Amino acid sequence: MIEVAGTTKDSMNGNSTLASDPASLVAEVEALGERLQRVRDSVGRVIFGQQEVVEHTLITLLSGGHCLLVGVPGLGKTKLVETLGSVLGLDARRVQFTPDLMPADIIGSEVLEEAEDGRRAFRFLPGPVFCQLLMADEINRASPRTQSALLQAMQEQKVAVAGHVHPLPLPFHVLATQNPIEQEGTYPLPEAQLDRFLLEVEITYPDEAAERAMLLATTGARDDRPVQALTAAELIAAQALIRRIPVGEGVLDAILRLVRGARPEHSADPMIRKQLAWGPGPRAAQALMLATRARAVLDGRLAPSVEDVLALAQPVLRHRMALNFSARAEGVQVAEVIETLKAQLG
Predict the structure, then answer these.
(1) Could you tell me the CATH number of the domain that includes residue 337?
(2) CB 181 within 8 A of CB 143
(3) Pick from 299, 305, 325, 322: which is nearest to 30 by CA?
């Protein structure tokens, strides 16, 4: 049973939904929690271990955002995206990003067609971006020009070709996989595109128990298949419900302190000001606000806590910050700066 916590008038930040009909909201959140548990169970039949990775990816989708999955090849990034498409009942497509991929290969193009009566007209041929779940596989292997072709689609959920605007299906999410920059044949993603990803999720090697279970399950005569546990319409409804979850003043203050403290212009810590070249913008605070709500629902809680902010600080902030040259020369890591900021929150 989900308990109503932290929902006094001062803690609701103008959200009157809970005050007007608390029982209805609690019932909706409980029902969503049961459906999300079925989603996690279905994903768990195919993806072994990586509970945090699965959780962060689901948080991204529930928040209505896009996710960047970072890890070396062979850790199941592509498998995770394919599984989520099946479990959530989304129209999923895959684009393998390569150095010769062109923007038109993603968003589509217009072709000149001639009718039987001799009349000629242009017809738009939609690209693979016209789907509900786009897997941009190894996105950093394509040129920056091609990477930028996703910008408008990710932010505005539409594309413009030859002066005509074409809306994308709803919901629309990009789950991109990326190899570490140190790998050969990769290009750094532009800062503007990185900021469009709600979370950056790092995928590491599975532990021994998870790898053992994976070996037994995937090398036999038959593999387990994911079972659909949600529909596109239900996902859209869940995203709307997430935005109605109340957020306490303490959580709101923690988000603002964390994000503003990560900017060299606003940080009160002289060491952080010395280390950072630039910090996260307001989109990072928006991402934390939504993601903390989604994480609370996944954990069976009605309202997020400061612990949710701390747990999501790394995936929300690390791709939205940059160290200056002197800090990089000293071996400082962005993750270390974020941990310092988290410690300052108490």
Answers:
(1) 1.10.8.80
(2) no
(3) 299
pLDDT digits (tens, 9 = 90+) for 194-243: 888 999 998 888 778 877 887 877 776 677 777 888 899 999 999 999 99
**Would you give the DSSP letter of residue 243?**
T
Q: What is the pTM of this model?
A: 0.84
Domain count, the chain: 1
In a domain, 264, yes or no: yes
Which segments within the chain are labelled E, that is strand?
A: 66-70, 92-96, 108-114, 120-126, 133-137, 158-161, 164-167, 173-178, 197-202, 276-278, 322-323
Which residue carries 């546990």 as its tokens? 229
Contact 46, 226 (CB under 8 A): yes
Of 251, 284, 302, the C-alpha closest to 65 is 284
Helix (H) or strand (E) holding 260: helix 249-261
Contacts of 38 (CB under 8 A, 6+ apart): 229, 230
How many whole angstroms separate alpha carbon 169 and alpha carbon 174? 12
- Structural domain for 305, as ranges: 1-19+246-346
As a dihedral over the C-alpha atoms of residue 206, residue 207, residue 212, residue 216, rounded to 10 degrees, the angle is -30
